[in-house]
C-alpha cells in the first residue's frame, strides 16, 4: 500500500498540493507536509529550530516499501552496500529480503511495508536522497545530486538540491515548533506536548512508539527476540506535530544532515528505549553506522519564490487552524 496526501478541501487544493508536496514516479511516492512560518526564531532553550525559508518534510519516516523500491532500482549489484543483511534477519525490525546473486539481486518487503526502514547509515540516506532528487532512475543516480558522495559521509548539501535529508533545524522545527502555542512557540515533545507521551497505539493524543517501561507494540516489559516492535506510519494518528508529521518521537532514531565534529546528527528516540524524545536531546554517530533503530526522513526544498507553494501553504494553514493537525 502506498500512502498518498489526503485533503478534505476539494479538488482545487488537492491539485495544488499534488504539484507541491508529493514527489511521484513509477517507483515511490514521498508524502510531504509544508513547513511555513519562514524566519521563525530559534527555541530559546536549545538554540535550534530557526529556518529562514519555507520547505516540505516527509509526513513520516522512509518506509520499508519505499526503500525496497530504491534497492530494486539501484542495487542489482549493490557496490555501495545499501542493503544490510540484518534488514531481513533481525525479527525485531524485519524487513527486507534479498534474493539472487550480485548483478541480479532483487529485494522484497517482509511483512508490513509501511513500517520504517532501519539498518540504514547516513550514507544510505544521502544516496536515496540523491536518487529521489535525480528522478528515481538507475544505479548511476545515487552518487551526485543533493550530495556529492565522493566527498564521503560528511559531504555538504549541494546548492540547488531539491530533495535532501532534513537538517537538524529543519527536522527540529517540523517536530517541535507551533506558532499557536505562545511563549517560545516550541513544545518539548513532537506530539504537541510538554509532558512525556504515553505509548498506546491508536488515535489518542500524546502517544509514541517507545519503551516507557513497557514496549508500545506489546504493552509488556518483557523483550522478545522474535517480536517486531516497529509500528506502521501514522499509527499514532492523534499525535502529530503542528505541521502534520508523525513519529518524530519514537519508532526509529532519525538521521539529519547536520555535521557534528566527524559525525552526523540524530534525533527523535526509538521503540527500543526511553531516551531521545525531548527537544533538548540530540545525538550523533559516524555516518557509516547502521543500527536496528536508525532510520531517516526526506525533506524537499522548493525553488525560491515559488508562489504556488505559498498559496497552498496558506490554505493548508487556514484548514489546520480550523480542524487541527492533518491525520
Summarize this structure as a short list of keywords or feature phrases.
327 residues; paralog of FGE (formylglycine-generating enzyme); 19% helix; disordered C terminus; 4-stranded mixed beta sheet; alpha+beta; 5-stranded antiparallel beta sheet
Outline the secondary-structure elements.
Blueprint: H1 11-20, E1 22-24, E2 29-35, E3 55-58, H2 64-74, H3 86-89, E4 96-99, E5 106-109, H4 122-133, E6 163-165, H5 168-176, E7 253-260, E8 263-267, E9 283-285, E10 294-295, E11 298-300, H6 307-323
Parallel strand pairs: 7-10
Antiparallel strand pairs: 1-2, 2-3, 3-11, 4-5, 6-11, 7-8, 8-9
Helix pairs in contact: 1-6
Which stretches are poorly predicted, pLDDT < 50 over at least 5 residues? 1-25, 306-327
Mean pLDDT level: 88
Our count of domains comes out at 1
Q: Report the sheet-strand fraction.
A: 5-15%
Helix content: 10-25%
CATH architecture classification: Alpha-Beta Complex
Amino acid at each position: 500500500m502506498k500512502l498518498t496526501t489526503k485533503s478534505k478541501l476539494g479538488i482545487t487544493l488537492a491539485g495544488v498540493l499534488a504539484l507541491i508536496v508529493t514527489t511521484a514516479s513509477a517507483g515511490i511516492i514521498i508524502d510531504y507536509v509544508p513547513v511555513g512560518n519562514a524566519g521563525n526564531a530559534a527555541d530559546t532553550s536549545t538554540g535550534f529550530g530557526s529556518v529562514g525559508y519555507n520547505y516540505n518534510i516527509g509526513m513520516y519516516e522512509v518506509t520499508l516499501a519505499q526503500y525496497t523500491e530504491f534497492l530494486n532500482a539501484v542495487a542489482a549489484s549493490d557496490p555501495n552496500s545499501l542493503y544490510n543483511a540484518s534488514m531481513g534477519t533481525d525479527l525485531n525490525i524485519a524487513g527486507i529480503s534479498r534474493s539472487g546473486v550480485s548483478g541480479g539481486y532483487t529485494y522484497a518487503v517482509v511483512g508490513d511495508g509501511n513500517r520504517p526502514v532501519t539498518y540504514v547509515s547516513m550514507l544510505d540516506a544521502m544516496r536515496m536522497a540523491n536518487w529521489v532528487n535525480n528522478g528515481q532512475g538507475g544505479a548511476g543516480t545515487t552518487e551526485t545530486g543533493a550530495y556529492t558522495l565522493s566527498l564521503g559521509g560528511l559531504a555538504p548539501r549541494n546548492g540547488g538540491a531539491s530533495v535532501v535529508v532534513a537538517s537538524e533545524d529543519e527536522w527540529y522545527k517540523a517536530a517541535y515548533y507551533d506558532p499557536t502555542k505562545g511563549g517560545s512557540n516550541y513544545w518539548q515533545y513532537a506530539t504537541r506536548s510538554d509532558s512525556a507521551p504515553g505509548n498506546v497505539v491508536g488515535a489518542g493524543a500524546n502517544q509514541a512508539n517507545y519503551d516507557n517501561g513497557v514496549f508500545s507494540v506489546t504493552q509488556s516489559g518483557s523483550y522478545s527476540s522474535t517480536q517486531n516492535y516497529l509500528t506502521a506510519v501514522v499509527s499514532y494518528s492523534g499525535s502529530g506535530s503542528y505541521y502534520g508529521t508523525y513519529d518524530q518521537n519514537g519508532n526509529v532514531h532519525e538521521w539529519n544532515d547536520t555535521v557534528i565534529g566527524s559525525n552526523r546528527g540524530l534525533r527523535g528516540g526509538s521503540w527500543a528505549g526511553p531516551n531521545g524524545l525531548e527537544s533538548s536531546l540530540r545525538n550523533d554517530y559516524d555516518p557509516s553506522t547502521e543500527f536496528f533503530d536508525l532510520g531517516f526522513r526526506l525533506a524537499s526544498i522548493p525553488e525560491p519564490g515559488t508562489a504556488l507553494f505559498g498559496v497552498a501553504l496558506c490554505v493548508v494553514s487556514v484548514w489546520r487552524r480550523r480542524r487541527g493537525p492533518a491525520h
